[in-house]
Design brief:
Elements: E1 8-14, H1 22-32, E2 33-42, H2 53-70, H3 73-86, H4 89-105, H5 109-118, H6 135-140
Parallel strand pairs: 1-2
Helix pairs in contact: 2-3, 4-5
Length: 142
């Protein structure tokens, strides 16, 4: 980022993390944050169905076509590539591990994921996005 070290009290990144080299992005955020500064990250979730090649292709094509229509070709390629980086075997392995932990503890996956996030002292306020009417109740059972 073209900013001096320790330039900001707050850095926010919304729905862009899956497009980036995350270790490099976090390193840059840390560099430009003032001591005691805050980071706010939000990104899209996924589904284990996204592991299927045909679903991956449909999602990437939908993203590409949408952004081609409303933005431009560069944005369309960036969005399609971002979906590819988000749907990795490493991310699916993490999802399956979280499902196993939830099953072991007899809780919803969202609850297990939230507990995992809250165990990190760096995270002060996770943001929860519901994908179904039932999900807020599932998470609030904590």
């Amino acid at each position: 980022m073209p900013f001096s070290n320790e330039s900001f009290n707050v850095v926010m990144c919304g729905l862009a993390t899956h497009h980036m080299n995350v270790p490099r992005m976090l390193s840059e955020i840390r560099r430009v944050l003032k001591s005691g500064g805050r980071i706010s990250l939000a990104d899209a979730g996924g589904s284990s169905l996204w592991r299927l090649s045909v679903i991956k292709f449909i999602i990437r094509m939908a993203a590409f076509l949408y952004f081609l229509a409303v933005e431009n070709i560069s944005r369309a390629w960036a969005e399609a590539a971002g979906r590819k980086r988000a749907m990795t075997e490493k991310n699916f392995a993490l999802l399956y591990e979280m499902e196993a932990i939830a099953l072991l503890h007899k809780v919803f996956v969202a609850q297990a994921a939230l507990e995992w996030i809250l165990a990190d002292p760096v995270i002060t306020s996770p943001i929860i996005r519901a994908t179904s009417v039932e999900q807020p109740n599932e998470v609030s059972a904590l």
